[in-house]
Amino acid sequence: MTLVRHEAPLALASLSDQALRVRAVEAASTYDAEGLVQVTLAYLLAASRKGARGSARTRAAYALAVRDFVPWARDSGVQLLRPGRRDGGRYVAHLQTRPSRGRGRSGGLSAATVAQYVAGARALYRALRWAGATEAQPFEDAHVPPDPTPGIVKNPPYLREIDDVLAHCDPRLAALLLLCAHGGLRAGEALGLRLGDLQGGMVTVRGKGGKLRRVPLGRRTRTALAGLAPVRPDGALFDWSYAQAAYRLRRAFRQAGHGHTWRGFHAARKHSGTRLYRATRDFTRVGLFLGHSSVDTTRRYVAVDDHDVAGEVEDF
């Protein structure tokens, strides 16, 4: 039974230095995972680089990671406030050898999942240092080997599936799919659109970290959106959560005979990036369209044809 009072992250961030330290030390000393989740979220909201403008999905992923790391630390004899210098590496090795616990999945955790869990554990220790509970950095020398298989290979863009699936979507679901597959929007960006965001052939998008960008919409997407009435008084065009929208699209993929190819919304965004790159051959323009801050990120969204430069090297 824990003595730690769980408080909202922003309430924790408003405590005095001494009170915050007491909360963090108590939570770490009792291996109170939920208390440490709150400390981590308080740090992310009040002291991280992006602050409250950071992604809600990132915060949720870090919370999941803390809930995984803390019980492992307790069962492995790790003192959270005074970890050994090799404990970070031990946790990485545990993740790399642990079987997946996902429903219907077999084998080990993917490299991306391992990296996400370690990122969350690192965030926990940044939060503990911010709270004044410890100066320990057990993950300073812990390395997560990158996935040798590129993401564009593991999760390639949808190609011909898009048109097939659209035939099995109601008008609102079709508009959502087109916003992602033709407009290049993230699922969260598309689901958050309001009628006032549409101006002529452009849409104003609220992206990661609160960044705004203006995105041109193709004729087909404009037509799909023109037929939609807002679903709420604030002009919202969609009232689905991410999970509800994914459920509807997964069903449409099955009805179109592509149930085995459903790979989430990100593959639709890659469809957009790949088509635009093939038309422009310019990663910079594609990156601006997708809202990337780095062209290196954009390259992971574009499926380049095998032997793409065959014609150029023919007469070398």
UniProtKB/TrEMBL annotation:
This is Tyrosine-type recombinase/integrase. PROSITE patterns: CB, TYR_RECOMBINASE. Residues 152-315 form the Tyr recombinase domain. InterPro entries: CB, DNA_brk_join_enz, Integrase-like_cat_sf, Integrase_catalytic, Integrase_recombinase_N, Integrase_SAM-like_N, Tyrosine_recombinase_XerCD. Keywords: DNA integration, DNA recombination, DNA-binding. It comes from the Bacteria. Residues 31-129 form the Core-binding (CB) domain.
